[in-house]
Structure formats: structure tokens, C-alpha cells
Design brief:
Radius of gyration: 19 Å
Strand order of the largest sheet: 1-10-5-2-8-9
Number of domains: 1
Oligomer: single chain
Shape: globular
Number of helices: 2
Distance between the termini: 60 Å
């Protein structure tokens, strides 16, 4: 009896520790919810060469083609908002090596709310990473309206380079 109570206690503690670790990394990926950005098209730019850092490209693909409002996506990493993208656009950031937790937070305006997506990766010095944020329209099973969703995934370098060519560079400025 004592052994089974001990096993249940250890198992419960293990589950709680895993859940806490997962919620910490997800909750810690985004920044403060009140932060907003102004996003503007800008002349294409390239990151500076820093061999001891990693370059991270965020490429937003808007697959919500029949909406009147172009979605805006805030990009967060390790608890801080780095910037934002809008529509079929891209931006980039230079990051230190190590494990990072990425957050994409898309707002669809008044046409279906928004969504968040998360991904973690281990940045190595001198390596370039490409991530795609997809804003999608998902049909409601009842057929009464369209729901919107967001996903983020790491891309192969060739696919990332191709999508950069198909996208517009944007810069974002944090609003006060």
C-alpha cells in the first residue's frame, strides 16, 4: 500500500513538473499583451555579418485571401516582442546562440479574432534560420462562418530563400 501511494506521488510530481516546464516556455515566448506595432513596407535590407550570432528570418504568409483586413503578426522570442509583420512579408532578427522560444501572435482585426503559435529552436553561431508564419482560414464545421488560425514552422534554407523572394520586407516600430 505504501509503495503504491509513493509511486502515485512520484508520478503526480513528475506530471506537474513537465506541465510547469511546458507552460513556462510557452508563456515565456511572447511579450506583454498590450504592446502594439506600426508595420510599414521598407526597402529590402540584409542583416549585418556577426559570426558569433544567428540570423532568424520570419516570413509571414497570408492565406486568408478573401478578407478585407490584412492580418498583423507580432513576433516574440524569449518573453520579448521583437517586431511585427503584415500580410505576405518578412523581417529578420539577430540572436545569440542557444535555445530560444518563438511566438507568433496574429490579429485578424474584426473578422475572427486571432491566434498564437509557438516553436522552440536551438540557434547555433553563424547559422541562418527561416520560419514561416501561416495565417489560415479554416471552415467552420457547421458552415456558418470561417474561423482563422495561425501556425509557425521552421523551413529548409531553399524554401526560406524562395519565400523571401516572394515577400516584401517590412519594418516595425513599437507604439507607446
Amino acid at each position: 500500500m505504501k509503495a503504491s501511494v509513493m509511486m502515485i506521488s512520484i508520478f503526480s510530481l513528475l506530471i506537474a513538473a513537465v506541465a510547469a516546464a511546458q507552460s513556462t516556455s510557452v508563456a515565456g515566448a511572447c511579450g506583454q499583451p498590450t504592446v502594439k506595432f506600426d508595420v510599414k513596407t521598407a526597402p529590402a535590407a540584409a542583416p549585418g555579418s556577426e559570426p558569433d550570432k544567428s540570423v532568424v528570418y520570419i516570413i509571414e504568409r497570408d492565406l486568408t485571401t478573401r478578407t478585407f483586413v490584412t492580418p498583423s503578426t507580432r513576433i516574440g522570442m524569449d518573453g520579448e516582442w521583437l517586431g511585427a509583420t503584415r500580410g505576405n512579408s518578412y523581417s529578420f532578427f539577430v540572436v545569440a546562440p542557444g535555445t530560444h522560444h518563438l511566438c507568433a501572435d496574429t490579429k485578424f482585426g474584426g473578422v475572427g479574432g486571432g491566434g498564437q503559435a509557438f516553436l522552440h529552436f536551438n540557434a547555433r553561431p553563424g547559422v541562418t534560420y527561416f520560419f514561416e508564419v501561416r495565417n489560415m482560414r479554416v471552415g467552420d464545421p457547421k458552415g456558418s462562418e470561417e474561423l482563422r488560425d495561425v501556425a509557425v514552422e521552421q523551413l529548409d534554407e531553399d524554401e526560406g530563400q524562395y519565400l523571401l523572394l516572394m515577400s516584401t520586407f517590412v519594418s516595425s516600430q513599437r507604439r507607446n
